[in-house]
Amino acid sequence: MTGLIAQKKNKAFRSMTGKGFIKKRTELSHYEADSMVNDFIENRLNIEETKLYIEHISKCRECYEDLELVYMIGNTLRYLDEEEDASADLQKMLKTDIQKKASKVKIYDIHMKLYKYIILAVVIIVIIMLLDFTGVLPVTRLI
Ligand SMILES: [Zn+2]
Hints:
By secondary structure, this protein is an all-alpha fold. It has a domain at 4-102. It has helices at 4-18, 30-35, 37-41, 47-59, 61-82, 90-134, 139-142. Helix 4 crosses helix 5 and helix 4 crosses helix 6 (90-134). The protein is elongated and about 75 Å long. The structure holds zinc ion (ZN). Zinc ion binds next to helix 2 and helix 5.
């Protein structure tokens, strides 16, 4: 973990991606992933960031271990505070949390694909209607 400085610098980068200055990101660097650990755990990443982060930690052992460490420390402290069962399997809890977030990302991706198809269908229908209306392609008269 490189810590706070990395976190601050990447906030700036991420605020740009959030506003669409950077259209499509396909991969995160270790440096970027590192700055997202806390936000991932506390559900403060947007869906695109969550997707990129999960993709990164699924391929990068080092960053996954960082996440695991931060998650363990955070939860152990909480258990001590709340005097809950500290023997809970934190590794399993983390995996469940990642799976939940990954399925949210999947659902989001499916919705985005659906929207694209719906928009495409609407555009095609509008074009056909225009062609019909202008008489270029008289669809309604063919039926
Ligand atoms: Zn990494």
